[in-house]
Specification:
With 348 residues, the protein is α/β, with parallel strands linked by helices. The chain has a single domain, classed as TIM Barrel, CATH 3.20.20.210. Helix content is 36%, strand content 14%. The protein contains 11 helices and 11 strands. A 7-stranded parallel beta sheet has the order 1-6-7-8-9-10-11. A two-stranded antiparallel ribbon has the order 2-5. Helix 1 packs across helix 3, helix 3 packs parallel to helix 5 and helix 10 packs parallel to helix 11.
């Protein structure tokens, strides 16, 4: 079979609404996609940046600073703290917004499928952040350890609601894992800002928490992991020397999980078409679908095929993706990026 096989849309897509995202992705990529996301539209445009607005409404949580920090779509980017004298264990977080969005977008997905715009057999993909991402991004000091179990419990309630409302054979859930890679790499760009809240070597804790999140998804629901080095103005927060730590973390999480991982996504920096970057992939211990994020807007089909040719020396079969979501890509480039996926990826 022609390599690569299939494509994955990591999550965010630079359209204004879910219907445009799903309709366009299905039209351009068709049978190359096994699952379609809603594009993380609206307030979810910039990944977790809307979460402080949600968490800041809870009794016992306060915003830091007196003046809002404006962000896209009316989002206030101020970080958070636990109010003085408040026991974090008693804080009750209401809806985080993920289940509400998933249920709303699933209704659009089923309508498009009924119309024939989305192929039968395609699943609806929901992308979720990890507690590490939200807690390390918006809380500081001792507040991190205090709020982490509260946020994780709220996130699990989102998962429970999603799997209760959406038929399991229509659903795929992806865990977006970026902050963890910053911790593992000890990314200097962040100093200590991404420190986790447990003592000692963070790696075992990062492994067990992600494995637990994977296991929180029912066995008859597909589950994937998107490992990432961030996307701020189409730049990583850390440029890896090779795929070694990605493979090390993925192997440990897969070994620790009680259920199978349906798919795994690994990023590739645009300038890396050398064997040294891809060589660790030969040691990947994953039996499910593998997607390599070697599609880049800047060099299109030619660049993706060049990187793909090197990757094929170390892994026998994989699909293609971008290294992160394309929600922050320049306006007017989205369809071109989708077409690059289509040209590089063979149908299943």
């Amino acid at each position: 079979m022609t390599q690569p096989q299939g494509a994955l849309l990591v999550g965010s897509v630079n359209f204004d609404d879910a219907e445009t995202t799903m309709r366009t992705a299905a039209e351009i990529l068709g049978p190359r996609l096994r699952r379609i996301p809603d594009g993380e539209v609206g307030k979810r445009f910039h990944w977790i940046m809307f979460q402080p607005d949600v968490l800041g409404e809870a009794d016992g949580i306060e915003r830091i600073g007196d003046e809002p920090i404006p962000f896209r779509a009316g989002i206030d980017a101020r970080p958070l703290r636990i109010a003085d004298g408040v026991d974090a264990a008693g804080i009750r977080l209401q809806s985080l917004g993920y289940a509400d969005a998933a249920i709303e977008s699933y209704a659009i997905f089923t309508r498009l499928r009924d119309e024939g715009a989305v192929p039968e057999g395609t699943r609806f993909q929901v992308s979720l952040p990890t507690p590490v991402a939200v807690v390390t991004s918006f809380f500081f000091g001792d507040d991190r350890a205090a709020i982490a179990p509260v946020y994780e419990a709220a996130l699990r309630r989102e998962v429970h609601r999603i799997v209760a409302e959406i038929p399991h054979d229509d659903l795929a859930i992806q865990w977006d894992v970026a902050s963890e890679m910053g911790v593992i790499e000890a990314a200097p760009a962040f100093g200590r800002i991404m420190d986790v809240w447990w003592e000692g070597d963070p790696f075992p804790g990062l492994v067990s928490q992600l494995a637990d999140l994977i296991d929180a998804v029912p066995a008859d629901v597909e589950v994937g992991v998107h490992l990432c080095y961030g996307d701020v103005a189409e730049k990583h927060f850390f440029e890896p020397t090779d795929a070694g730590n990605l493979v090390r973390y993925a192997n440990a999480v897969i070994a620790a999980s009680a259920r199978d991982l349906t798919w795994l996504h690994l990023p590739v920096p645009i300038e890396r078409d050398d064997e040294a970057y891809y060589a660790p992939l030969a040691g990947l211990q994953h039996d499910g679908e593998l997607y390599i994020g070697l599609v880049h807007r800047e060099d299109g089909v030619e660049g993706a095929r060049r990187r793909s040719a090197v990757a094929q020396r170390f892994v026998p079969e994989f699909g293609v993706a971008t290294e992160c979501g394309i929600g922050r890509a320049p306006e007017g480039t989205t369809e071109g990026i989708l077409r690059t996926h289509a040209e590089v990826a063979a149908a299943w």
